Amino acid sequence: MPVAQPLHPSHHKSLMHEAPNHFRTLAPRNGLHRGQSDNYSGLRPEAVKSNLLRGASADLSEFIWPKDQWPSVSHNDFHMAQELPTVDLSDLHHGSEESREATAKLLVKTFSEWGFVQVINHGVPTEVIEKMQNQARNFFDLPLEQKEKGVASSTSKHEGFGYGVESGFYYAGKPWIDRFQCRWSPVCEIREPVEKVFSPTDAEEFSTSIEDYNGRLDKLAMQILELTAQGLGLPSDTFIKPFNGTAGDCIARMNYYPPCPLSSLTLGLGAHTDPNLLTILSQCKVGGLQVCKNGTWISVKPKPDTLIINIGDTFEVEMLASFCYSFHVSQGRMM
């Protein structure tokens, strides 16, 4: 029976710069077990649609990570005592000033303790998320030679974007991941590589769904920045001023993790922190995302109509600096 594949579209916003906690993504199992020796020939028909196996050795040894980095918790083990907190953003749309203030403080508390938060009632319609995810699946289901038409050449202004780009992180082993990414703002550059991959009709449908989804995430990101400032006791526009009314510098990325026979020996994406301001992640029903809190890896269970927000290195520094400023101002008033 086919194994479902995790799909993690994400939206990265930068001012341009370590979140309190690391995170990683596990690859789903495909029937083989730790230590089993095989040429994994049974996998190849499933993975041939990605660029993972291009040039790979017969035993896939380059995907095997050092033992101390092997996942100790399965991608679908959600029985940990701790669970990533969820914040309800209903008050953003129809709450009182008091309830908005309470939500802002809860958001700051969660960011300071976890670096991550799950949000519900975030204003992004279910149908928009589902359409985006369906379009992402359509893309990764294409034959490899078709997707490779969306690879940006080294001489292109889009170098580093398009299909099959590297993860941007350097690990002890090769990550089990396939991806597509494009610059979203200040100038949207999704259509050029997509039009090389799809027919005109399919390219329009794909681009429109991604643009609709990301446009809504732009609004959500600004609301999160405003709430965080409010939760720190600062003017609500503290963190959005540098954007001067724009969406800032954003990247739209789709990560795909095919079924893997080495799931106990490798990772879809290794432990890391994001260098940007915010990452907003939509996780498909398969799961795979794990966050590390106090040295323990915790699998994040996918939930319908839920988005995951991760503060990046830049925002951690911004929050810390702003908190110190707020604290000292308060102390000055008290003296």
Domain unit count: 1
Computed structural class: alpha+beta
Unreliable stretches (pLDDT < 50, length at least 5) are 1-5, 13-21, 30-42, 325-335
Largest sheet data = 8 strands, mixed
N-to-C SSE string, H for helix and E for strand: EEHEHHEHHEEHHEEEEEEH
What proportion of the residues form beta strands (DSSP E)?
15-25%
Corresponding CATH architecture: Sandwich
Tally of DSSP β-strands: 12
User: Mean pLDDT across all residues, rounded?
Assistant: 77
In which range does the helix fraction lie?
25-40%
Kindly report the spatial arrangement of strands forming the biggest sheet.
3-4-12-9-1-7-6-5
Q: What is the C-alpha radius of gyration, as a whole number of Å?
A: 21 Å
The 3D shape can be described as globular
N/C terminus separation: 69 Å
How many H/I helices?
A: 8
CATH topology: Jelly Rolls
Under the CATH scheme, which class? Mainly Beta
The named CATH superfamily:
B-lactam Antibiotic, Isopenicillin N Synthase, Chain
Overview of this structure, please?
The chain is an alpha+beta fold and 335 residues long. The chain has one domain: Jelly Rolls, CATH 2.60.120.330. Helices cover 32% and strands 18% of the residues. The chain contains eight helices and twelve strands. It has helices at 44-47, 91-94, 97-114, 126-140, 144-147, 191-197, 200-231, 313-334; strands spanning 7-14, 23-25, 86-88, 116-120, 162-163, 178-185, 249-256, 269-272, 278-281, 289-293, 296-299, 307-311. The protein has an eight-stranded mixed sheet with strand order 3-4-12-9-1-7-6-5. Strands 8-2-10-11 form a four-stranded antiparallel sheet, with no helix packed on it. β10 (289-293) and β11 (296-299) form a beta hairpin. α3 (97-114) crosses α7 (200-231), α4 (126-140) crosses α7 (200-231) and α6 (191-197) packs antiparallel against α7 (200-231). The longest helix has 32 residues, at 200-231. The chain starts with 6 loop residues before the first strand and ends with a helix. Residues 1-5, 13-21, 30-42 and 325-335 have low confidence and may be disordered.
